[in-house]
Write a structure and sequence with these properties.
Nucleotidyltransferase, domain 5, about 35% helix, elongated, alpha/beta
Length: about 210
């Protein structure tokens, strides 16, 4: 018969199969709003992303508010055993840019965060650790400005807080562990988290990747 992939967390949260679009893909598609691009033009820029024109159409039509397009609606929240981990980093994304003379590859600055509740002990092995309840947000462009002016992190921080409060069951006993590379702008986000959740303990540490690199 026909193969079908099962996503247990999606079933738990009531997320349908057509809603499983990565936030970075939605961000890129919506960046073309107002640029007079056809859906086929947009599809041509989506290198290594397996989506169809209908998906692009749905994302465009459903983008009524900033909150709606990067979060799938759900009334069920994820239980946090003790600590909510927030990994933050900045990088460059390689993309195709449409111009009159044709397509060209460009690099776009981005900052992103992966949020999770730690390792899944039942699924993890010594060689392959598995993270539980992983979600994330991404902000494209403006990284140089964010780093120069730490107060300009508003868009990314708002997305991060909306994701956390929408998906995770936060109470006063929950602790936050922020992991990053030691950059000042990440430390500034830690301060924002502490201000937003004043009753919770917020910790910060260098992540294992940057600690050993």
């Amino acid at each position: 018969g026909k193969e079908e992939y099962i996503f247990p967390l999606d079933k738990l949260l009531g997320i349908e199969k057509w809603q499983r679009i990565d936030n970075s893909v939605k961000e890129k598609i919506l960046s073309f709003i107002g640029k007079k691009k056809t859906y086929q033009n947009i599809l041509d820029t989506m290198e290594h992303v397996k989506i169809c024109i209908k998906t692009i159409s749905n994302i465009m039509k459903n983008a009524k508010t900033d909150k709606e397009y990067y979060l799938n609606k759900t009334d069920k929240k994820i239980n946090i055993p003790h600590t909510l981990y927030i990994q933050i980093d900045g990088t460059y994304l390689k993309m195709w840019n449409e111009k009159k003379k044709g397509k060209e590859k460009i690099k776009k600055h981005s900052i992103f965060s992966t949020v999770h509740t730690g390792f899944d002990k039942a699924k993890s092995t010594k060689k392959r650790p598995v993270i539980s309840n992983k979600l994330g947000v991404i902000e494209l462009d403006n990284i140089p400005e964010y780093i120069k002016k730490n107060s300009k992190l508003t868009n990314f921080v708002n997305k991060l807080f909306t994701l956390i409060t929408s998906y995770y069951d936060i109470n006063d006993n929950i602790e936050f562990m922020v992991l990053g590379d030691g950059a000042p702008w990440i430390k500034n986000i830690v301060k924002f988290i502490q201000e937003y959740f004043p009753k919770n303990k917020v910790h910060y540490t260098i992540d294992k990747f940057h600690l050993t690199s």
